[in-house]
Amino acid sequence: MKIQGQTGAVQSAARRLLDLASGSTSSGGEETTNTDGDELSLSPVARGKQAARTAELLQWNAEPLEVADMRRDYEQKLAGLESRLQVKFTKAGIETSPPFQLQTDAEGKVRVAGDHPQKAQIEQLFVDEPSLRDDFVEVNAKADFLRAADEAMAFQRAYAEDPEGAVQRFSYLFDSGRKPTFQLSVSGDKYDAGFQENRGTTVSRAAA
């Protein structure tokens, strides 16, 4: 499978980058910086890591129709989850004002991010009804896939036109500490799915 618009030149670039990565990661050192923390140059190891990540992005394969189908399925699953949550919250007497955010933790449990007077009660709903938790985790997984696909395809299109510019423009994709967290924000009868970036910004709406 290939991403629509992906050229042989881009594929060749991916192979060359993988060769560069394998030949660079055995050297020592990381980034060279000045006293202000500005990057001056990349060591062989850092260049190798950048090359490996670039190749990974260029080699992302997904048929456009496959992604479109996944997006439609995601939107349907999300709408169903939101409707189900609205009913559950109403029956359980859970106040959705003040608003709160739902996320999945490392153990796959649904948690309320931050403080809410009924935080424990909200989280217990997902424990008492495993199928509700499963629905949330499924939506989370689909949103993660679509986010990664959208980022990779956007990078590929930019790289085909201007490799150096693409790497600079999409520099956040090369941050090994970047771990976007899917969250569903609940405020009254409104639901908004998005990603909480570890840099403190929220990207919403998810997989739009």
How would you characterize this protein structure?
The protein has 208 residues and is of the alpha+beta class. The chain has two domains: 8-63 and 147-174, no CATH class; 73-144 and 181-204, no CATH class. It has six helices and seven strands. The protein has helices spanning 8-24, 44-58, 64-92, 119-128, 130-161, 163-169; strands spanning 31-33, 39-42, 100-104, 110-113, 181-187, 190-196, 202-204. The chain has a five-stranded antiparallel β-sheet with strand order 4-3-5-6-7, with helices on one face. It has a two-stranded antiparallel ribbon with strand order 1-2. The longest helix is centred in the C-terminal third of the chain and has 32 residues, at 130-161. It is elongated and about 55 Å long. It starts with 7 loop residues before the first helix and ends with a strand. 19% of the residues are buried. Residues 1-7, 24-40 and 200-204 have low confidence and may be disordered.
Give a brief rundown of this model.
The protein is an alpha+beta fold.
Alpha-carbon Rg, integer:
21 Å
Beta strand count: 7
Report the helical percentage. 40-55%
Question: Domains counted in the coordinates: how many?
Answer: 2
Low-confidence sequence ranges: 1-7, 24-40, 200-204
Mean pLDDT rating: 79
Structural class: alpha+beta
Strand content: 15-25%
Sheet with most strands: strand arrangement: 4-3-5-6-7
DSSP summary: helix tally = 6
Q: What's the story with the biggest beta sheet?
A: 5 strands, antiparallel
Q: What is the terminal-to-terminal distance?
A: 23 Å
Give the topology string: H per helix, E per strand. Answer: HEEHHEEHHHEEE
